[in-house]
Specification:
Strand order of the largest sheet: 1-9-8-6-5-4-3-2
Number of domains: 2
CATH class of the largest domain: Alpha Beta
Oligomer: single chain
CATH superfamily of the largest domain: Aldolase class I
Structural class: alpha/beta
Mean pLDDT: 96
Number of helices: 14
Strand content: 5-15%
Order of helices and strands: HEHEHEHEHEHEEHEHEHHEEHHHH
CATH architecture of the largest domain: Alpha-Beta Barrel
Length: about 325
Amino acid sequence: MRTRVTELLGIEFPVIQGGMIWCSGWELASAVSNAGGLGLIGSGSMYPEVLREQIRRCKNATQKPFGVNVPLLYPDIEQHMNIIAEEGVKMVFTSAGNPATWTAWLKERGITVVHVVANLKFALKCAQSGVDAIVAEGFEAGGHNGREETTTMCLIPMIREAVQLPLIAAGGIGSGAAMAAALCLGAEAVQVGSRFAATVESSAHEQFKQAIVKAGDGDTRLTLKELTPVRLIRNKFYQEIEAAYARGASTEELQELLGRGRAKKGMFEGDLEEGELEIGQVSATIHSIPHAAEVLQELVEGCKSRLKMLAEIC
């Protein structure tokens, strides 16, 4: 499967693994890259020297391209960027911030830059900032999300019409059929998070993986828009958030309730009651914990099958 994105990233299949905090370590990234997609190390949950170690382990585990996802709202950004450049990483996916902040710096060092957006405004900023490609992430996605609540089905054609850059679709994509739909809407690759979170190689806690498998229709909600919007599985912590909203809690009170380390507690340590359990709506369709290579194979084969079916109809 050849698209502008596969050419840009040097990969066999137009599938990028989401750089999810607490789920996307070197084992997952290298497994996806070895299977022909692009694996991403999720740096948002890592101290600088942990990131350096993860990059080195990934380089030892794969000879194929991989990248690092850097959420711009997290601390230690400057140290992370310097480590990425020092270690010779060739691709960086930035998110949760202004694409103009680091794009020029990265490109001066020969690094391909892809930025994640959730609306048209930031897609246009990406084009002005000189990024190499855009990930357009719809409302269905897990983790930190856009306030606009624009779904992937609407967001992809909207951005495709306005921006000529290579376009990657994200949000609600966990099957070959969904991948084919994204390509039909104008995307040239897909980024998949939740489906890869529930794999053998994911660094998420086993109890969190089981929570993903057990999640059903309507079990996730987008919340905490006053802080940073995040999609969570409904649990005891989420119920506390709902109760806070019901009593008219201020932004400061919501921040105090959130505290620090909630995501680590839930996704990495397996506290299913008090932790943040960040996952997308597509979790309702996930019923197993396979190897990452199996997920990628299912995505590609399922996509090809659906596209062939469409061609026969036409």
